[in-house]
Amino acid sequence: MTASDTATAVAGTQDPTAKAMAGASRPTATPSAAAAVPVACKNLAVHADVKSAVTQTWEHAKRVGHIQPKPGNFYYGSCGTTLYAAVRFEAGAGATGDDRVQLQDEGSVLQFFQFTSSTRWSYVGSDTYPATNDCSRFAPVTLAHQWNCS
User: Which residues lie within the region annotated Disordered (predicted)?
Assistant: First the structure.
């Protein structure tokens, strides 16, 4: 069971990630198309279970616990059938000294995630320090512009 599945099971509702994937525009191509067909990108409202799944993905990737998304610092959207998230984290209830050190070192900058139906949520990288606040390093430029993060 993945973090996203766990979050959905806890919430007891249909997975908003699945809803977003179903509603995301799908690229179309013709056999004669030489270049990639552009896909529509859109900023999406983020649901609690998506925040939870992304947070769990970063906790697992960085071996840090007791964290939460920093209010006002969670970006979420889709381009085609791929979902993207960018988030800054902060210490949550029960954070240990090690958790706080990890957040001090890397958690203060944007962390980037990607979701596909085959990979689920995966951590793809982080902004540099000092922060550039450039989401287009890991998300499509069109989406980064919609997030005012480029």
Answer: 1-25
Strands (E), the chain: 41-43, 67-79, 82-91, 111-116, 120-126
The CA-based angle 56-78-89, given to 5 degrees, is 30
pTM confidence score = 0.74
Whole-number CA gyration radius for the chain: 16
Domain count, the chain: 1
| Owning domain of residue 33 | 3-146
Helix, strand or coil, per DSSP, at residue 63: coil
Written as six digits, the tokens of 79 are: 């381009």
Query: For 1-55, what is each residue's pLDDT tens digit?
Result: 433 343 333 333 445 454 444 444 333 333 434 445 568 999 999 999 999 999 9
As a whole number of angstroms, the distance between CA 123 and CA 29 comes to 29
Say which residue the tokens 């900023």 belong to: 43
